């Protein structure tokens, strides 16, 4: 690797901490700056003389562009650079899996909000006004907004490759199997937003030699770097990225947003350029969770043993590919749920439309199908007259079974165990409804009743998902560990490119190093592209893969330490060598302090860690596609005001297998936070689309769970070691989001008896007043209903 | 225009302020106090919470001109150099910080709550913090942090 020159900007100082060992709850090293307001997020970056970038976006979801005139904008005082597709020096498109998304649009726009031009100016307001001076001549086209329409042969093609972005077909056992008891249904999941709080932002600094440094919040520095370098037509080493403070991610920062734009502007203007989206622009600036329509049929014998599952899944991929391929694959492979299903036929389609591009969000393909398969299991239980947990237990997959995609279910796969655990956890206390503090009623103080119509319901669900990148992807991480002596004390420097997005990866890396090398002071260096890739902070994979890399690098360092000990002290110790409390021990005997051993030079090792390989699916959707699976089960207790359609989630109980608890406090935080996002999808969160246009691009109209909406989470955590993973750990970030949604909806059904086949569940569905209001002729003297108000759904 | 106000105990002034700039923008971009955050800039998330003349406000909703001559306290002004405020300590100890983007606003809002109500009940905490969005934690540890801070205050810490 060619040595990379230092970024031109001063790095934030690194605070060494004493992280404790794995298995301990330790406060985050970045906690102090965060509570003081001193932690530097990408939106906080500034240097003297920097310019502000802004992006012109298409107001139309589908249009031809006949011309773009930037002359007037260029002439504005305070404007330093105005760029369009003509100014993209290298590849004019980007994309993680399929490079199909224009850096800046030419000829066509395919979704509302697609970037067309970028501007750099001396004040953000000047930049925004300059955008208004850019004249774009559009020919507006009808948008294709329904994936089912996009799938039809006679629909115009949005991309040269056609409208089908990806299809996965899984044939397992006898696809024509029949059964005595059959249930079917159609289910739908709305478009959820990651809604991380820190807006897309970053600062590009030209190095004066044609290269650029970018300080950025992202999930994966190297894949950003490679895409930026391609589009800038620069060698990768001339594009250096440093992770800036990241205000949450949840999948929404996997794709590029302002990265290439800010670098182009900075290189053109010869000045540092900062870009920062506001909340509205953020809704247009990142991908969302795929909306999905699902048709399911389950067949079982009269005892409740599953005979077959048939499913047809249609995902709306939106205008560009993003990570849709992987979502389509995941959904297909997990469509049957964590059950032993002897026969299955799954058809999973991903379509291009003129809706916003959809991509990664926590749970990634597993979330959508879990809502459907768990609803189906409840339906089946109902038809059989069986307890729904018993039905699930009866069909729970076990190690040694075959997944519908042909892989053998590995140890551990405690589906039955986690279900039994959630069923047996104590129930929250029943609290008298009438006379209760209003704030504890569904809807809180906005509940206009006294709770007469409130009913309680309970629901269960279980789900699972792969950890890490699958289907043959070369999924690795790089870590460097330097052990040295400073001020007479040993200290470990950990360097990786793994993005800390809030999950606590920096703490974990320090804990692993502390555990492996027995040294108290550990400093985790800022993540940047000076070291090799760590892969993405997504798919719940960093604890496993970067954790594995850090562990392996520590082992390499330890090997070198022991070598030195042997060189200096011979190898007759009468006991195994180990490292503890800053010393090397043989058995219990202290051989030498590290401070002494490393006096004349430290030890540094850089390693690349890979998990075991995975393989793509064959034409029947069969193959060893995944390397680890994580399972969680949820029980939800809700109260529903049937008359008002208001909900209070009383409690979520969950059991999850994590292999090994690395840091109890941060694990709990992942579970609680993941459940909150599942609750959001069940009850509140949806990007509402109309004719390809987003209707609610703000936190006023896109509803996130608040502290009033979130109940306590009762949890039991299992530690069944995965024999292949570092410390036996399993990824933990996503499972809490997968089955919490269907558990809540099951509880709503239990309370109301209604079908509820779509999430988020709206109040009108719960109160049974769904559908269009009845159109009546206006009464004499009234202005009558405004036609448009009547037609649109709330 | 020129703006003068007192921020975290110091007289500060900003020159060349444009109409339309918010107090949040002034703090972050002109006074070098980026601790107050900008998650929505429309009064929905609470990440920009500060005190203005002792009142908790969303600084994104305060026009710069409205802050003229006022006294502002931001998250940066709650503790001195060396010692964290008990609310800040409690957020770290309780694990209420993940990405931390909501944290400064929550710290200020919690500070305000405990000034008004030293021993808030769960419902009172939830009500008081309902204007502060957090996307990472699911709020449970934030609730724990507030209770921990209240307990610390009670012990004279
Ligand atoms: S930034 Fe002020 S309330 Fe969200
Ligand atoms: S900790 Fe990330 S938003 Fe609250």
Structure report:
- The complex is a heterodimer of chains A (794) and B (157).
- Chain A has 794 residues and is of the alpha+beta class.
- Chain A is built from 19 helices and 33 strands.
- In chain A, strands 3-7-1-14-11-12-13 form a seven-stranded mixed β-sheet, with helices on both faces. In chain A, strands 9-18-17-16-10-33 form a six-stranded mixed β-sheet.
- In chain A, a hairpin with a 2-residue loop joins strand 30 and strand 31.
- The radius of gyration of chain A is 28 Å and the shape is globular.
- Chain B is an alpha+beta fold.
- Chain B has two domains: 3-77, Beta-grasp domain (Ubiquitin-like (UB roll), Roll), CATH 3.10.20; 86-154, [2Fe-2S]-binding domain (DNA polymerase, domain 1), CATH 1.10.150.120.
- Helix content of chain B is 33%, strand content 13%.
- A five-stranded mixed β-sheet of chain B has the order 2-1-5-3-4, sandwiched between helices.
- In chain B, strand 3 and strand 4 form a beta hairpin.
- Chain B is globular, with a radius of gyration of 15 Å.
- At the A-B interface, helix 1 and helix 15 of A face helix 2, helix 3, helix 4 and helix 5 of B.
């Amino acid at each position: 690797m060619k040595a990379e020159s230092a970024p031109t900007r001063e790095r934030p100082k690194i605070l060494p901490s004493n992280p404790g060992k794995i298995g301990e709850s330790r406060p985050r090293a970045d906690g102090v700056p965060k509570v003081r307001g001193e932690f530097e997020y990408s939106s906080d970056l500034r240097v003297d003389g920097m310019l502000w970038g802004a992006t012109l976006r298409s107001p139309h979801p589908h249009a031809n562009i006949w011309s773009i005139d930037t002359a007037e904008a260029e002439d504005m005082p305070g404007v330093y650079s105005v760029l369009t597709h003509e100014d993209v020096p290298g590849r004019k498109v980007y994309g993680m899996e399929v490079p199909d998304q224009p850096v800046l649009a030419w000829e066509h726009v395919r979704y509302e909000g697609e970037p067309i031009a970028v501007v750099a100016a001396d004040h953000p307001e000047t930049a925004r006004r300059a955008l208004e001076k850019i004249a774009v001549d559009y020919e507006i086209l009808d948008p294709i907004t329904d994936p089912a329409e996009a799938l039809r042969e006679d629909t115009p093609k949005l991309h040269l490759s056609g409208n089908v972005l990806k299809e996965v077909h899984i044939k397992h056992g006898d696809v024509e199997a029949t059964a005595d008891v059959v249930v079917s249904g159609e289910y739908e999941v709305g478009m959820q937003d990651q809604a991380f709080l820190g807006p897309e932002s970053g600062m590009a600094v030209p190095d004066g030699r044609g290269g650029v440094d970018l300080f950025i919040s992202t999930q994966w520095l190297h894949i950003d770097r490679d895409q930026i370098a391609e589009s800038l037509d620069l060698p990768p080493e001339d594009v250096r990225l440093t992770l800036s403070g990241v205000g949450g991610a949840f999948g929404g920062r996997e794709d590029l947003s302002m990265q290439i734009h800010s670098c182009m502007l900075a290189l053109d203007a010869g000045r540092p350029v900062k870009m920062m989206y506001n909340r509205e622009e953020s809704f247009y600036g990142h991908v969302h969770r795929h909306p999905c329509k699902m048709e399911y049929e389950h067949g079982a014998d009269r005892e409740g043993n599953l005979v077959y599952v048939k499913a047809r899944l249609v995902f709306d991929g939106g205008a560009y590919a993003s990570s849709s391929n992987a979502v389509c694959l995941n959904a297909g492979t997990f469509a049957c749920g964590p059950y032993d299903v002897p026969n299955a036929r799954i058809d999973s389609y991903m379509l291009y439309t003129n809706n916003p591009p959809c991509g990664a969000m926590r749970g990634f393909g597993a979330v959508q199908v879990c809502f459907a398969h768990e609803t189906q299991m409840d339906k089946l239980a109902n038809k059989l007259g069986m307890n729904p947990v018993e039905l699930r237990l009866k069909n729970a997959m076990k190690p040694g079974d075959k997944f519908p995609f042909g892989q053998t279910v590995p140890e551990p796969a405690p589906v039955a165990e986690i279900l039994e655990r959630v069923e047996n956890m104590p129930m929250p206390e029943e609290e008298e409804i009438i006379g209760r503090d209003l704030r504890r009623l569904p809807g809180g103080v906005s509940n206009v009743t006294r709770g007469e119509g409130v009913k309680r319901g309970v629901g269960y669900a279980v789900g699972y998902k792969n950890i890490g990148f699958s289907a043959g992807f070369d999924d690795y991480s790089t870590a460097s560990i330097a052990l040295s002596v400073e001020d007479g004390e040993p200290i470990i420097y950990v360097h990786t490119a793994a993005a800390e997005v809030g999950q606590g990866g920096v703490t974990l890396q320090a804990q692993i190093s502390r555990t492996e090398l027995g040294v108290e002071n550990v400093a985790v260096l800022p993540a940047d592209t000076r070291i090799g890739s760590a892969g993405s902070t997504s798919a719940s994979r960093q604890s496993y893969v970067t954790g594995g890399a850090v562990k392996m690098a520590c082992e390499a360092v330890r090997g070198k330490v022991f070598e030195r000990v042997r060189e200096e002290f011979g190898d007759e110790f009468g006991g195994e060598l180990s490292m503890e409390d800053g010393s090397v021990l043989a058995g219990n005997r202290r051989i030498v302090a590290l401070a002494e051993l490393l006096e004349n030079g430290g030890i540094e090792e850089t390693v690349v860690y890979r998990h075991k390989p995975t393989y793509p699916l064959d034409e029947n959707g069969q193959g060893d596609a995944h390397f680890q699976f994580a399972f969680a089960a949820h029980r939800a207790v809700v109260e529903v005001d049937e008359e008002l359609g208001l909900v209070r989630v009383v409690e979520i109980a969950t059991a999850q297998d994590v292999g090994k608890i690395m840091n109890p406090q941060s694990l709990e935080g992942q579970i609680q936070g993941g459940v909150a996002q599942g609750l959001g999808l069940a009850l509140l969160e949806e990007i509402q689309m109309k004719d390809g246009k987003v209707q609610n691009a703000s936190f006023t109209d896109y509803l996130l769970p608040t502290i009033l909406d979130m109940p306590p989470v009762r949890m039991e955590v299992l530690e069944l070691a995965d024999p292949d993973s570092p410390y036996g750990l399993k990824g933990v970030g996503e499972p809490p989001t997968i089955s919490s949604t269907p558990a809540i909806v099951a509880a709503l059904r239990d309370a109301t008896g209604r079908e509820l086949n779509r999430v988020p569940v709206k109040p009108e569905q719960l109160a049974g007043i769904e559908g269009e209001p009845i159109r009546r002729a206006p009464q004499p003297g009234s202005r009558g209903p405004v036609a448009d108000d009547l037609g649109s759904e709330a | 225009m020129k703006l003068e106000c007192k921020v975290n105990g110091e007289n500060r002034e900003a020159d060349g302020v444009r109409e339309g700039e918010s107090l949040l923008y002034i703090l972050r971009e002109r006074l070098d106090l980026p601790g107050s955050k900008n998650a929505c800039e429309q009064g929905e998330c609470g990440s920009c919470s500060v005190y203005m003349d002792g009142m908790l406000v969303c600084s994104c909703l305060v026009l710069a001109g409205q802050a003229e001559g006022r006294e502002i306290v931001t998250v940066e002004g709650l503790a001195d150099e060396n010692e964290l405020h008990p609310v800040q300590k409690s957020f770290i100890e309780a694990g209420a910080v993940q990405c931390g983007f909501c944290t400064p606003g929550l710290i200020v809002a919690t500070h305000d709550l405990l000034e008004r109500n030293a021993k808030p009940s769960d419902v009172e905490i939830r009500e008081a913090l309902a204007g502060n969005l957090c996307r990472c934690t699911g709020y449970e540890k934030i609730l724990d942090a507030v209770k921990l801070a209240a307990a610390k205050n009670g012990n004279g810490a």
